[in-house]
Amino acid sequence: QAFFCLLLCVPWGSSCPPSCQCTERAGAKAVLCSSRHLEEIPKDIPKDAVFLKLDANSITRIPSNAFRHLSRLEELDLSRNAIEKIDRAAFKGVAAGLRTLDLSSNRIRSIPKEALLALNAKLRLANNPWHCECALQEVLWEARLDPDSVQDITCHTAPREEYVGKSLLQVLDAGVNFCSVRQRTTDVAMFITMFGWFAMVIVYVICYVRHNREDTCKHVDYLKSLPSTQGHAE
Length: 234
Fold this sequence. Notes:
It is a single chain. The chain is built from six helices and ten strands. It is an alpha/beta fold. Helices cover about 35% and strands about 15% of the residues. The chain folds into two domains: about 20-180, Ribonuclease Inhibitor (Leucine-rich repeat, LRR (right-handed beta-alpha superhelix), Alpha-Beta Horseshoe); about 180-215. Helix 3 (about 135-140) runs antiparallel to helix 5. Strand 7 (about 100), helix 2 (about 115) and strand 8 (about 120-125) form a beta-alpha-beta unit. A six-stranded mixed sheet has the order 1-2-3-5-7-8. It has helices at about 1-5, 115, 135-140, 170-175, 180-225, 230-234; strands at about 20-25, 30, 50-55, 60, 75, 85, 100, 120-125, 130, 155. The protein starts with a helix and ends with a helix. It is elongated.
């Protein structure tokens, strides 16, 4: 924060979004759009921006390729917005260079793991109404989370009531595996489907055999009802 304050002292002569303030210091270019009542990400952010602050706005969604043209971006602050949806390719184009990404204090319940696992950035995901599930568990284990905020990733909703309100890390440390729960559910669904098909085949075979048996019995009865050859000969 102190660094951003210093950047404010030096004006940036190049183009800048009208709702933002752009500054430069020691070659580091920053676009400061904090608390500007923005409802979406500005589309005219300079390509050579290194720091981008979009915190304390009303942004609700991060669409695909939202920052793709910002190849030099290193720090991105999206905290304290109203973000509910993040597309799978939201951070495409900046994944390699981004060093920090702050998504804390939003309205994020779930997020495609593909959107975050490709990042090398340190992530802040605290204070969101998370639904604890397999995808969030995979993000926790594989992404680079900020250690100072990981305890604040809590389960707002979960498959079991006993997990609600608890830190996701605490739940996982207790031995819970949301991914194995999903796998068991998938296995049960596959078993039920296979059993249903097997039952249909059995019913078909039984009906087929019964139908043929009835036809055979009718044919035999018909043959018995015919006058015998021997009787005609006499």
